[in-house]
Amino acid sequence: MPPFNRLDWPIAAAMLQFPAVTPKGELVQDQGPDEWAVSLQEVVDAGFIHFDPTDSWLRIADLSEARLEEFLRTVKQVGLSIPAITTARRSVIDPDHGDEYLAYSHRVLDTAARIGAGVVSFGFLRALTPAQQQALWFWTAPGPKDPDDPAVWKLAVTRMQELGRHADEVGVNIALEMYEDTYLGSADSAAAFVRDVNHPRVGLNPDWGNLVRLLRPVERWEAMAEKTLPYAKYWHIKNYFRSEDAATGNVVTAPAPLEFGVINYRKAVRMAIDAGYDAPFYVEHYGGDGLSVSATNREYLRRILPR
Amino acid sequence: MPPFNRLDWPIAAAMLQFPAVTPKGELVQDQGPDEWAVSLQEVVDAGFIHFDPTDSWLRIADLSEARLEEFLRTVKQVGLSIPAITTARRSVIDPDHGDEYLAYSHRVLDTAARIGAGVVSFGFLRALTPAQQQALWFWTAPGPKDPDDPAVWKLAVTRMQELGRHADEVGVNIALEMYEDTYLGSADSAAAFVRDVNHPRVGLNPDWGNLVRLLRPVERWEAMAEKTLPYAKYWHIKNYFRSEDAATGNVVTAPAPLEFGVINYRKAVRMAIDAGYDAPFYVEHYGGDGLSVSATNREYLRRILPR
Amino acid sequence: MPPFNRLDWPIAAAMLQFPAVTPKGELVQDQGPDEWAVSLQEVVDAGFIHFDPTDSWLRIADLSEARLEEFLRTVKQVGLSIPAITTARRSVIDPDHGDEYLAYSHRVLDTAARIGAGVVSFGFLRALTPAQQQALWFWTAPGPKDPDDPAVWKLAVTRMQELGRHADEVGVNIALEMYEDTYLGSADSAAAFVRDVNHPRVGLNPDWGNLVRLLRPVERWEAMAEKTLPYAKYWHIKNYFRSEDAATGNVVTAPAPLEFGVINYRKAVRMAIDAGYDAPFYVEHYGGDGLSVSATNREYLRRILPR
Predict the structure, then answer these.
(1) C-alpha angle C293-C295-C297 in degrees, rounded to nearest 5
(2) What is the ipTM score, two decimals?
(3) Mind listing the domains of chain C with CATH numbers?
């Protein structure tokens, strides 16, 4: 029996739509609770009762204990709860900031335990290149690549084992986000990486949306699902239209609501649950009104989850 | 006055999303009623009260009478009814299996009459080529083509006349599915074919979605509608995004919900009803979560059908 | 405080889906109220209580007073009201019809005042070329271009000042529609034009959908928003999927519902309201079932407007 049903499965809003710097140039990291409440209220107004304080918006692990308590009070006041914490672009093998991000990752684990979030999403994605920042869709411009170097792979494995031990001590799970051109950039590589880490607390965030949107050949989602769902510990869910011309190889993609894109989440979610998936879902959407589409995606998930 | 309104017009779910072979390698054709009920219950859960036992899922015409009764009991128990039967890729002029599929088509007519389904969809589409099976979207790879040979056209006409006589004896209609590169591959050819058959029981299934998704120039749906709706006896309804660059001729398509695609079904359905259309609708969708999109399409149809 | 909230902000249906000539060859301009009522009832059936009698359907400014009264009675009977009037392809600097369209524009202002519509949309778009008429999507074929000629720009400014004075006398606002290859074809040019007109009654209709659908490089909507929303006096709202390959520059677009397209209207509407926007919205959609998508877009706007 799955631990939740379509009515009570936690479905968390991403905070991707909310930038770290306000239009006035103010850092969200420095805002007071009243200002945080404005963004959180918007999430509530879109119908969410769960959200993930994605660190592209706010690094709650870098708040003082007093400020964290203010934050949690605000979250509670607007009526939200936090089942998970997502980090973005804080690779522990970042060539320039790896050590710093490793220390940060440890703080995130402690914070997750402190606030009762059961899972944290880490990944090897790095800061966007200038070309990616210029692009309408950053995934159509070349980005950083994890090196084809066994020593760096080994370092990544070792650091994840270290984080896994910490996670185990504080009772939190780790999900590693699949992302192109990283060691988690294909289903085979992601599964191999997790097997190398070989720690019961460390699994995958099978975010295939990161891959099916690429303008290059990609593995079919069903094949990726078979390989990666058994390791899933958290799940960033998003979808894309993907046109492929079999005659020319021409590929065009565009962000799509969950129901309409190329990944069949009705089937994928069933496969996940059959494989024992019992963690929250994280609904995100790039392009246009991400919060509204995330809300639409939440309603779709409610329709297709088990009764 | 149309025979139905937006509340009671029969709108049947396709069973395209349900494969003939289960993940465990079991044939649906050999399953017992409890297993059929799982798939049928999923259709019910998506809000359908009508479905079409599309033979890519289950060939009900090939069940023994005892098994057919089990099937019908199951259908009734879950709360579904069957207004029509669709066959797929059983061309009576298939070079290798034409005679076999002709015999099968006769059995389908008898089965339709036996279970009270008023219409059957036949077509000249053939098995997918290996290249089509490999493609993300099979319609972007070249498929079989009906020969430019008057003798084969004549054979197709003769066999449809034979099936038309049988259909008339048992009180069932035949709708021929428009499909690229067959004798029903354009509005003009489809209309000419039906006129050659010249039997009141034999009309068209104006499935323009099969055509507007092609990455080649295609006739505008309005022109196809004028030519084919007067012959419509059943209707596979689906839609596509279709981008065409007038300057370069570049075409990109993707599966779309009915409301959002290039075919204006509000207008098409009105044209059909004005032309006397009184048969069920069949909602299908390739790509992603076809059952959910089919349910969304059903709700759209309910909104635009006459009060 | 914005003057309306999500429940009562006027959101007008476009009449783009309704052609000026019926399938039987009859001009809507010559129809009687019973025939107008059929189209208006369809708008009501789609859930609208406001509509804009777009003049591609019916030129209400060219009705006699008796006929206009019939029209208004019909509008009232079906339960609609008219917050604005949109003109299409009646450029006051049209090389062949500029004088005629100027006179017509004056009549439109008087009619708007007569019927209590607070704003009129004018623009410099011209009749579609034959290539545009042939195209599936007219904006993918080259269209007329406003000349790079200061004398014509000056004439355009002068005529808009003249219309602005008239508008002021009768208490109506003028919104100039952003449209490619006209003097209102980019955010910078549109803002410069309005500043040249320099009349408090004359502002913009920031219809960025006209631009983001183009298969050429276009400015990001956020940048256009900053430049044009301060001048907005009416707003044609529509959205598009827009795929851009940063590596090749390849662009593909397709009409999209407001919620799903590249422009984030949640953010854009907030920016507009922060800049003082207090006029109605006009929901339109090209391609497929424009009326249904417009209704879907209306519901989306209701969700994201201020409580």
Answers:
(1) 70
(2) 0.96
(3) 11-304 (3.20.20.150)
Which residues on chain A are in Cβ contact (under 8 Å) with B131?
246
**Which residue carries 């009991």 as its tokens?**
B73
**Between C252, C262, C304, which is nearest A287 by CB?**
C262
- Considering only CB atoms, which chain B residues are within 8 Å of A241? 241, 254
A202 membership: H or E segment, kind and range: strand A202-205
Asked if the Cβ–Cβ distance from B265 to C289 is below 8 Å, we say: yes
Nearest CA-CA distance, residue C114 and chain B, Å = 34
Residue B227 and residue A190: Cα distance in Å, rounded? Answer: 53
Return the residue of B nearest to C254 by Cα.
B243
| Concatenated DSSP letters of A82-148 | --EEE--S--TT-TTTHHHHHHHHHHHHHHHHHHT--EEEE----PPPHHHHHSSSGGGS------S
H-helix or E-strand containing B133? helix B130-134
Cβ burial of B62 (10 Å; 0-12, 13-18, 19+) is middle
**C244 in contact with A at a CB cutoff of 8 Å?**
yes
pLDDT tens-digit series, residues A261-282: 999 999 999 999 999 999 999 9
E strand or H helix that includes residue B120: strand B119-122
Q: Check if the beta carbon of residue A122 is closer than 8 Å to that of residue A87.
A: yes
> Above 90 in pLDDT, residue C34?
yes
**Blockwise average pLDDT, block size 10, chain B, 307 residues:** 94 95 92 96 98 97 98 98 97 98 98 98 97 97 98 98 98 98 98 98 98 98 98 98 97 98 98 97 95 98 97
Q: State phi, psi for C154 to the nearest 5 degrees.
A: -60, -45
**B30 φ, ψ (degrees, to nearest 5):** -100, 0
Q: Encode burial over A182-196: b for 16+ CB neighbours within 10 A, e otherwise.
A: bbbbbbebbbebbeb
User: Alpha-carbon distance B49 to C59, whole Å?
Assistant: 46
- Alpha carbon C34 to chain centroid distance? 26
**C-alpha span between B47 and B44 (Å, rounded):** 5
Residues C232, C276 contacting (CB under 8 angstroms)? no
**Chain C contacts in chain B segment 286-305 (CB below 8 A):** 300, 303-304
> B90-115 burial, b if ≥16 CB within 10 A, otherwise e?
bbbbbeebbeebbebbbebbebbbeb
Beta carbons of A288 and C259 less than 8 Å apart = yes
| Cβ atoms C84, C12 nearer than 8 A | yes
Any chain B CB within 8 A of the CB of C136? yes
Best of A292, A296, A297, A299 to disrupt the C interface by mutation (most C CBs within 10 Å)?
A292
Task: Give whole-number Cα distances, C260 to A11, A135, A200, B76, B231, in Å.
Answer: 20, 19, 39, 39, 36
Helix (H), strand (E) at residue C85: strand C84-86
Question: In what order do the strands lie in the sheet containing A202-205?
Answer: A84-86, A119-122, A173-177, A202-205
B141 touches chain A (CB under 8 A): yes
